[in-house]
Specification:
It is built from 5 helices and 7 strands. It is α+β, with helices and mostly antiparallel strands. Strands 1, 2, 3, 4, 5, 6 and 7 form a 7-stranded antiparallel sheet that branches. The longest helix has 27 residues.
Length: 215
């Protein structure tokens, strides 16, 4: 077959048709992605709403100069109080934000903390909402613990809502533990519980250092 004959053949016409379909599909997918793309600010707001289900929290972060700013769902790259992941005890602090409320003087720190020490060397990442007294530089209590994700935790489903609520009842000076009579643990999920305790303890320790709480 000659070159001229190839260009007139059905095979060439099929190739051109397929290329046109691919080009049009690519353009349409790009446009659709633009409409469906979720900003980092929106992802943050969704995470916050899972923690604060009965109130209207206002999320604070930092601007480029380190000043306090309110983060909206439109922010493409919201900056929190942690510029990069930091180690706090047996946890890694991934992100943190200050939370205020329209009809309350309460102030919280919402910390995304990855606790180590889970089953098979795995981790559990939690969102930990911590109420603070900034004037007197004191952590008051844990308001909420919400599991975000986990790695290698086969029995994470055994972690009950009651166990997570137990974190809000008291704030032990030595931190939460899976050992002893006062253990915060879910039967059958000791390693996952250990990682969760480490996550919460790390979040509390980070907040105490951040607000300058005295030893």
């Amino acid at each position: 077959m000659t070159v001229k004959g190839f260009f007139k053949s059905n095979a060439f016409k099929c190739i051109i048709t397929l290329l046109c379909v691919l080009l049009v599909s690519g353009v349409l997918l790009t446009i659709a992605y633009g409409f469906m793309e979720v900003s980092n600010g929106e992802r943050l707001q969704r995470a916050v709403k899972k923690v604060y289900t009965t109130s209207s929290p206002i999320v604070h972060g930092l601007d480029e100069d380190g000043n306090d700013v309110i983060i909206s769902s439109d922010d493409k790259n919201p900056k929190g109080l942690v510029s990069e992941s930091v180690t706090s005890g047996n946890a890694v602090i991934i992100s943190a934000y200050k939370i205020t409320f329209e009809n309350s003087d309460d102030v919280h720190y919402l910390v995304q903390s990855r606790g180590k020490g889970g089953y098979s060397g795995g981790t559990v990442t939690c969102w930990v909402a911590i109420k603070v007294d900034l004037e007197n530089k004191k952590v008051l209590k844990i308001e909420k613990v919400q599991i975000g994700e986990n790695t290698n935790q086969s029995f994470i489903g055994k972690i009950t809502e009651k166990m997570l609520n137990d974190f809000t009842e008291d704030l032990p000076e030595e931190g939460f533990t899976t050992k002893g009579d006062d253990a915060t643990v879910s039967t059958g999920a000791t390693y996952s519980s250990n990682a969760i305790c480490n996550s919460v303890n790390g979040a509390v320790d980070w907040v105490r250092k951040t607000i300058g709480e005295a030893e």
